[in-house]
Amino acid sequence: MSAFAPSAVPALIKASKKPDDINVFYYTDNGLDFYGNSIFVKKSFAKKNPEIVKAFVRAYIRGFQDMIKAPTAGLDAVLAADPSKLMDRESERIRLETVLAQGFITPEVETLGIGAVDPKRLETSIQQTVQGFGIKTNPTVADIYTDQYLPPLAQRQLPPASERKPLQ
Fold first, then answer.
1. Is-contact 141 48, C-beta < 8 A?
2. Residue 19: which pLDDT band, with cuts at 50, 70 and 90?
3. Distance between CA 14 and CA 37 in Å, rounded?
4. What is the b/e burial string over 7-44, where b = at least 16 CB atoms within 10 angstroms of the residue's CB?
5. Based on the structure, what is the number of domains in the chain?
6. Contact at 8 Å (CB) between 167 and 100?
7. Residue 168 counted as domain residue
8. Residue 153 and residue 159: Cα distance in Å, rounded?
């Protein structure tokens, strides 16, 4: 089955599959070095409202840092804010555990800070995407990424490991 691991694994476990029976093949383990989640903004909006974009990014990063420090509190806050009450805590815990380990707390993020990219890695990812999907245009790193709305590195660092509580 081809799927997004943070969504598929909790669903499979909820469907009575044992974690030991699930093998996940991550793209990065197989030669594809893609970035994951991103924040998108229309260029026209960003140009007219750079301070709003900067404020949003700062707030996002601060919330992200708080979640890294106390992931259980972050998870509980998201569940409490869900008016539908359809989210299953155990499924969401597994999802968060997966993304923390595979995407959020990485050597690259530890070095570059939250929100930054390695231009060479992003260029490779772009080329793999262009080739893999037969895209006729060839965007550059500058076409799809800017750091101009990021706060300084000191404000984007992951919290020290000593400050990170375990997810429960």
1. no
2. confident
3. 24
4. ebbbebbeeeeeeeeeeeeeeeeeeeeeeeeeeebeee
5. 1
6. yes
7. no
8. 12
- How would you classify residue 116: left for phi > 0, otherwise alpha for psi between -120 and 50, otherwise beta? beta
Other Cβ atoms less than 10 A from the Cβ of 102: the count is: 15
Cα 139–chain centre separation: 22
CA–CA separation, 79 and 63 (whole Å): 15
- Rounded to whole angstroms, the Cα distance separating 38 from 17 reads 31
Range of the domain at 55: 5-159
Residue 104 in domain: yes
Per-residue pLDDT tens over the stretch 27-58: 778 888 888 788 999 999 999 999 999 999 99
CA 94 from centre of chain: 15
For residue 143, the number of C-alpha atoms closer than 13 Å in the C-beta half-sphere is: 6
167 domain residue, yes or no:
no
The residue behind tokens 């989640």 is 37
End-to-end CA distance of the chain: 28
Residue 120, Cβ neighbours under 10 Å: how many? 10
Residue 151 CA to residue 168 CA, distance in Å, equals 31
